[in-house]
Amino acid sequence: MLVDGEERKSLWFEENALHLIDQRKLPFEYEIFVARNVEEVAFAIENMVVRGAPAIGVAAAYGVVLGKDLDESIERLKKTRPTANDLFYALDYMKKEIENGRDALNAAMDYEKRILRSCKKIGEYGEKLIEDGASILTHCNAGALATIDYGTALAPLREAHRRGKKFFVYVDETRPRMQGALTAWELQQEGIDYCLIADNAAGYYMSKGEIDLVIVGADRIASNGDVANKIGTYEKAVIAKENNIPFYVAAPASTIDRSIKSGMEIVIEERGEEELKEKWGCRILPDWIKVKNPAFDITPSKYITGYITDEGIKKEI
Ligand code: MRU
Question: Where are the domains of the chain?
């Protein structure tokens, strides 16, 4: 991904520490968070210094490298966030590799390369869906920040832009954590034409015929194709179907959970109330207001036109 015109990744391992672009600070400030032990990596995942399913997985893999005891490190990292399959997938991978005698850093670096390869492929396959002149809606941030580089939902857009296609992106702001601002930051850096809209404006633009295609990422995909993704994805999918707009989910193999039959089995993370009551250090609701804050929802497969994977575009997962 481009940051001020230079190619960067959203995290990297250097001098025995994990370096992460601090996603809590963007789009206002570009800062690097350095995690030197497993607890600091766990903190980074829990507090969304790093976020997005594939990036969480890679961060956790490097977290294992920084841990002293393999099982304790894995147990700690598994407790950070419950919904993204990639976290558990990466930790299972690390456990197997290390128990088979593999060097931990070597294994984590390979895991990162695998994710990068998958996202690049997703971009190459997904790019075909983007027609010149199209308007595309995306929800949350499924870009390079969420995946180390390229993105999942944003990878096809990056690739189409690279090939010279002209298109426009509607970016849902994605309350309460405003991941849309991260997507806007990435698109701005790449020079891709976009505007950010309030979450509840997407239906309006769909009904006016201003959106041709929806692409989102995923945190966990069940065997029947149901998708857990950022809260608000479900309603976008329903409105897209109502308006005959294709709705695609982009994800690597690490997001697919073959051990569960349907989305009903996916654990939905409930996050703290301060995410609704505070924005960038500013109080926007009084303490006494009661709130609920589910971080994800489930989109049943019947609303999904197809899955953009590293093996191609599929009707079924
Ligand atoms: O809570 P977050 O910001 O980690 O949630 C991220 C999302 O829901 C993304 O859309 C999803 O992980 C896909 S990331 C490529």
Answer: 2-119, 127-314
